[in-house]
């Protein structure tokens, strides 16, 4: 649920960023890992962010924040990792996906 909360927060940030910085290539988001106390920031491009948002079970996290019991690393960079939840965690992530949110990154 923590990941879904940060996903929703990042979606709102992305909407505001698009208005404020227009066509800037990169912007910052909050790590969407399972740690409730984590507030680390990630710099990500619009295309990378759209890739994360293409699947409601995917999240962007800081390197090393993966929870191997419930998620698989799909992409690893020096700035972030994209993980996909599996099992019940994936079902919860998909259930909590905001209906009105679609990957709208230009």
Strand content: 15-25%
Query: What would the principal axes of the Cα set say about the shape?
Result: globular
Oligomer: single chain
SSE succession? HEEHEEEH
- Sketch the major β-sheet: 3 strands, antiparallel
Number of helices: 3
Q: Which consecutive residue ranges, at least 5 long each, have pLDDT under 50?
A: 100-106
How many domains? 1
> Residue share in helices?
25-40%
Strand order of the largest sheet: 3-5-4
- Overall average residue pLDDT: 77
Q: What structural category do the secondary elements indicate?
A: alpha+beta
- DSSP, total strands: 5
Q: N-to-C terminal Cα separation, in Å?
A: 28 Å
Radius of gyration: 13 Å
What would you say about this model in short?
With 106 residues, the protein is an alpha+beta fold. Helices cover 35% and strands 24% of the residues. The chain has one domain (2-96).
Any overview of this molecule?
The chain has 106 residues and is of the alpha+beta class. The chain has one domain (2-96). It is 35% helix and 24% strand. The chain is built from 3 helices and 5 strands, in the order αββαβββα. The strands form 2 sheets. It has a 3-stranded antiparallel beta sheet with strand order 3-5-4, sandwiched between helices. Strands 1-2 form a two-stranded antiparallel sheet. A hairpin with a 4-residue loop joins β4 and β5. The longest helix is centred in the N-terminal third of the chain and has 20 residues, at 2-21. The chain starts with a helix and ends in a 10-residue tail after the last helix. 26% of the residues are buried.
